[in-house]
Amino acid sequence: MGGARVAGWVAAGLALGAGACYCVYRLARGRGGRRQRLRPSRSADLTNGSYDDVLNAEQLQKLLYLLESTEDPVIIERALVTLGNSAAFSANQVIIRELGGIPIVGSKINSPNHSIKEKALNALNNLSVNVENQIKIKIYINQVCEDVFSGPLNSAVQLAGLRLLTNMTVTNDHQHLLSSYITDLFHVLLTGHGPTKVQVLKLLLNLSENPAMTEGLLGAQVDSSFLSLYDGHVAKEILLRVLTLFQNINNCLQKEGRLAVQPPFTKGSLFFLLYGEECAQKMRALLYHPDAEVKEKVTIIPES
User: What share of the chain is helix, strand, coil (3-state, %, to 5)?
Assistant: First the structure.
């Protein structure tokens, strides 16, 4: 593209500085063009914007060019929100990939601006619903993990990163990329607040369903305070998930016939916590929990 066209797009983008996301839509849509009404993907997480405004391929290309061309943080953030909203629609997940948009969005997770980083992670999260997109997004997993575990606890960036990692581990294909971060996941689980705990547990549940990840989970060094999550007063959304985590791991061990063999795990590992006497006592106590779902979960887990 010529210099005049570049300057024109950037100049147009500067007008967005004080505007809302709708302004980005108007810029990308241009004149004319009929709206398309599409259904968003079930697991998409729209941050805001209108479900009625869906960009077509030409408009998305212009928006990606704007995102790549400008250094204005306000424009970058608005463009990322708009792309993230567009990526909530399955057709646009494919279009953005075919336009080369994933590396453009992915480059923004390097931004020192936490708000831009968060919006880029949100956009990648919506894009990652498409399995083919995950092949391109997986190159960012290590960096996302580093940001999640070294950044501020309970921050918007941390939660956005955890949501992306959760989507990327729905299938077994890329779970091995998190093998060296399992201990860190348990640390965030134990130190984070409610929403952070729930998001980490969603991720751990994905890993726990894969027999190939069982040894890594059980070998992780986990603080003994983990067992407090099995106390009867723990919030149901957390308690049910930690019980399911135990159940999934137990199922994987049974499939491999390893419950009868003493695995080579060290003291302080998750294995010694889950299969120790203290945990067994907590399981027995939960048999008298007032919630029927909790009691049902406990009865499924055989006593160790």
Answer: 70, 0, 30
- What is d(CA 186, CA 265) in angstroms, rounded to the nearest whole number? 17
Q: Could you read off the pLDDT of 79-133 as tens digits, one per residue?
A: 999 999 999 999 999 999 999 999 999 999 999 999 999 999 999 999 999 999 9
Distance CA 209, CA 248 (A): 6
**223 phi and psi angles, rounded to 5 deg:** -60, 145
What is the rounded CA–CA span in Å between residue 273 and residue 280?
9
Longest dimension (CA), the chain: 73
Q: What angle do CA 66, 8, 63 make, to 5 degrees?
A: 20
Q: How far apart are CA 12 and CA 285, in angstroms?
A: 64
pTM: 0.83
Nearest to 174 by CA among 182, 165, 161: 165
* CA dist., res. 271 & res. 221, Å (int): 9
